[in-house]
Amino acid sequence: MIGLPVGVTACLFDLDGVLTSTATLHRIAWKQTFDEFLAGATEGERGPFSDHDYNAYVDGRPRADGVRTFLASRAIRLPEGEPDDAPDAATINGVGNRKNEALLRLIDERGIQPYPGSVAYLEAARAAGKRIGVVTSSANGEHVLAVAGLTPFVEARIDGVTIVEQRLRGKPAPDSFLAGARALGVAPGAAAVFEDALSGVEAGRAGGFGYVVGVNRADQAEQLREHGADIVVDDLADLLDGAK
């Protein structure tokens, strides 16, 4: 058994922080990018980017949304620019592309490891006949899944590229998870959402999904519950029969 209510036939997993440890790399890349940007800023608050900033303004959101939301919290405004802006451009998209360059360097240097408990859960979910999809705000979703060796588990992938192509609202709006349910051919009420980000569990609750699992990777169990998680676990293996 995999710890899901009767009637839930599909699982929609966030990627970074739920299936793989890449959330740590995202956090490092965001801090490098924003600390460098803030050091040269001429307006707004210029204190360093913090863990609170990551959890409140960036985690789980599409890249441009994260830049926009964080800078707004510091009273800094930039023009939107274009998706292909150079990483040194003083635009929302430019800052986001700078972060992506930093992230890809970190992936090359450190590699990507899936959480063993998450792999065990994926194996159990597949054996139980559950449909499996990945819903991530990252535009690097396909690459991360491949490097982590998780592609064979995934029937449908909604990622940052899909979000732009289909003009979906990013988390905490439920649009990307709803697209994941459509891609698997199931109603939201028949799908479970697995998320480590506050914006992600909020999206799962807003979309009317059958079960929302909060994965507590950042010591924020109570906040995950407050934002809509039905259950909070430290690792997906905790949901499996026989877990201690």
From TrEMBL:
Pfam families: Hydrolase (PF00702)
Cofactor list: Mg(2+)
Gene Ontology molecular function, alphabetical: hydrolase activity
Record EC number: 5.4.2.6
Catalytic activity, reaction form: beta-D-glucose 1-phosphate = beta-D-glucose 6-phosphate
InterPro entries noted in UniProt: B-phosphoglucomutase_hydrolase (IPR010976), Beta-PGM-like (IPR051600), HAD-like_sf (IPR036412), HAD-SF_hydro_IA (IPR006439), HAD_sf (IPR023214), PGP-like_dom2 (IPR023198)
Hydrolase keyword on record: yes
UniProt KW keywords: Carbohydrate metabolism, Hydrolase, Isomerase, Magnesium, Metal-binding, Phosphoprotein
UniProt entry tagged with the keyword Nuclease: no
Superkingdom as given in the UniProt entry: Bacteria
Broad class of enzyme this protein falls into: isomerase
Family: Belongs to the HAD-like hydrolase superfamily. CbbY/CbbZ/Gph/YieH family.
Name of the protein: Beta-phosphoglucomutase
Organism of origin: Actinokineospora diospyrosa
Lineage, broadest ranks: Bacteria, Bacillati, Actinomycetota, Actinomycetes, Pseudonocardiales
